[in-house]
Amino acid sequence: MEYVGEVGAVRYSREAGPVERGRGAGLGEHGRGAGLGEHGRGAGLGEHGRGAGPVKRSREDAPGDHAREAAPGDHAREAAPGEHAHEARLMEPAREDRPVDLVTALARARSPENPGPDTPAGPAVRAWPGPPSPIPEARAGELDLRALLRLSLAASDDSGRLRPAPSAGALHPVDAQLVVGTRCPLPPGRYGYDPLRHPVHRLGREPDGALPGATVELSVTPQRTASHYGHRAWPLLLLDTGHAAAALWLAARALGTYASVPRLDGLAEDPLAAVHFAPPQRVGRVSQPEEPSDVPAPRELLARRSAPPPLGGTPSRDVLRTLLTTAVQASADELAWCAAVGEPQPELVELAPDGTLRRLAAGEARPTLAVWAAGQAWIADAGAVLLAYGCPADADAARIRRTHLRAGFAVHLAHLTAVRNGLAARPVGSWQQADLGAALGAAPGRDWIVHGLALGTTHPDEEKTS
């Protein structure tokens, strides 16, 4: 069944307070009106004046993944001559002799172009050289690497799909190397981590100046994600890396001893991110992002799963305020945040300077978000959708990396906060033509949706039994 909703046109306002309804201004019309969307023609907020058709049903992701699905028939399309070679160049790991053109890759990922047919994903885990070694149990005064990795990166099933950090399509492209210093159960050195079987492979000696404790460096194997998402892979790779960094950081907090400082500055291509963990005796107050007010329990991190749709029921305004606060603090001023809310009064809300909620725009945005999010119709019925936006079209590679890493990090923390408040939640990572700023009447190309978190008060299993 296709979803074609009716959305009244609205007038946009950045001031707190009510937003007046208007007539005839579609949200996506880039300057011909500042409304939230005229969806009666099946395009709505994301119309951009051309080509966005009605929201279509699509194949579901497996539970625990970012939500993205291809529109019907997009995998059946034959690739044009040379297209796979061009895609492969964009998907290959960065190397000094062949760097990834991230600016071009992001522009293409944001376009309406559909991915081609699926290609082989390759091994679920990187083939590290050398024999595997178990991670020893930590002794008194040592960093508990085994517990830290099990609470953050380790798979809980034989296929490797179920892990504490979500991943688009459960493809898990993020690889981890450990730079181990003193006061760890492993001898100092550099190690590759196998999240499927949980051993490490010694790769060499530690670099000069390695800190006590351990640093986990995160890089990606692009082909795992590109195998299904094609040219849309690079934003998802960066978001997945941000989620993995957040999972590591939360694991340290859950263990109650170690201070971690995430590096998410976007300056390096490899590793994309790093998180350092100090040994127990030297834990102190270090510079780190704001976190949920209470410490998570290990069981909460292991139980985190992305809820399968549908996600019905609008969260309370108090809970939305808490989620927006968590996301804003965790994103370190790299992104703006709002939430598209459904019943009883559809609107976009954001945090005011005093910490309360204020209206960003009035009107129904969710059907258009469903169009923008690879045509996933269930998003039109979600209770609310938390949105990170920014990363302008002229952003350089470092800024692209930084904003996407921060978005993944922040959405992961918001996801945990949502679950702790009794909500069902599911990350939404793939967005096409999602120029939210232009849709709201601002200059085009400045405020693109980078990441989302769909929310509902009703869990799917409850809906089945009701």
From TrEMBL:
Basic and acidic residues bias spans: 12-23, 57-98
Gly residues bias (residue ranges): 24-46
A GO MF label: oxidoreductase activity
Disordered, as annotated region: 1-98, 280-317
Signal peptide range in chain numbering: none
Lineage top rank: taxon: Bacteria
Gene3D superfamilies named in the record: NADH Oxidase (3.40.109.10)
The protein, known as: Nitroreductase domain-containing protein
Organism encoding this protein: Streptomyces spinoverrucosus
